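Document type: protein sequence-to-structure record

Subject area: structural biology

Format: plain text, a pair of labelled lines:
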Amino acid sequence: MNLIMIIRVAFRALVRNKMRAVLTMLGIIIGVSAVIAMVSIGQGAQASVQAQIEGIGTNLLFLSAGAQNLGGVRTGTGDTGTNTLTVDDLDAIRREVPSVSMVTPMVNSRSQLVFGNMNWNTSVQGVSEQYPEIRKWTIQSGDFFTDSDVRSAARVVVIGQTIADNLFAGADPVGQTVRVMNLPFRVVGVMARKGQDPQGRDQDDVAFAPYTSVQKKILGSPRLQIAFVSAISQDATYTAQMQITELLRQRHKLAPADPDDFTVRNMSDVAEAANQTNTIMTILLGSIASVSLLVGGIGIMNIMLVSVTERTREIGIRMAIGARSSAVRTQFLIESIVLSLTGGLIGIVLGLVVSIAIPTMLGWPTLVSPLSIIGSVVFSAMVGIFFGYYPARKAAALDPIEALRYE
C-alpha cells in the first residue's frame, strides 16, 4: 500500500467519526489560539513600553544635582538645595567628553499662563535650543527658540498641545503674547503632540523657554536642577556615563573616598530592565497557554487508543491480507497528525481574531509575531507525532489472529 492510499484511508477513518474528531481537535484549537493571543499581548506590551521609552529621547542620560545618598542623608536627584551642577559643568562636558553629542540644562517652574481672559497652570521648563533634537520632539507650528534667545534671556516661549488647546481654543498661538509670572512672553512655536509618558503624565502640558530666562525672570536663581545629555550612539551611553562621572568628580574636587554630589542615570538601563520584565511576562503567558496544548495532545492519544481498540478486527483483516505493520503504524500516525495540524490551523485563525479584537474591546496593545504562528504549526505537528506514536505502535503490534478473534 503506497503512502497516498494510506493517507486516503486515514482521512476516511476520521470522516466516519466527525463529531469525535472535532471534539478531539478542540483541545489543540484552544491551546494554539491561547498561545498566539497570550504571546501577542505580551509582545504588544513590550512594544508599547519600548516606544514610550524611545519617546523620551535618543541615547539619553539624565544628569542631576545632588546624590542619591549625600552625607548619610538621602537627598534624591534634582535637589534644589544642593547647588552642585552648573552651566560651566555642562560646557565642560560638551567640550571634553568625546562620547557626548548634545547637552541641555533644564530648570523647572510651576506658573500660571494667561492669555486674554483665559489662564492655565502648567510647568514652565527652561531648556536650551538643543532640547527638541535631544528629545526627538518635533515642532508642529512655528519654531523653537535659538541660541541667541538663550544668550540674551529672551522672553519667548514654546507651548505644548494641551496648553494650545486650553488657551487658544483652535486659534494659531504663534506670534501671540502670553503672561508668565506677570511678564509678557511671545509664543514662537507649538510642539507636536507627544501623549503620556510611561508614568501616565501628560507630556503636552508643558511650556518651554530659554533656561536663562527661567533662571533670571521666573525663578530668580542660577541653580540647575537637571540636564539631559545625548550620547553619540546607543552603545556609547555607558562610556559617556563613566566619562561624565570622572570629569565632574575632578571639577568638584572630590576625594576618592567622597561620594558623588551628582547623579548620572542611563536610560539604556531603564529600557533593558523593561525589556527583561516584558520578556519574562511573555514567556510566562505563553507557557501557561501551552498547558492547554499538552492537554489537547493527551486527548488525541486517548482518542487514538480508543480508535485502535474499536478497529481491532479491521486491523486484523488488513494484516491478514498482506498489510505490513509499518503501513498500519503510518495510517494511525497520519490520523493523529491530521487531527493536530487541522486543530492547529483553526487555532491560528481563532488566535489572530482574538489578537485583533483585544485592542478594540479591552484597549490592550497586541503584536502578533510570525514566529509564534510558525511555532504553533510546528508544535501542533510535534504533538500529533508524539502523542500519536504510541497508539500507532500499539496498532501495528497487534497479532493478526488475535485481532480477527476480537469481538
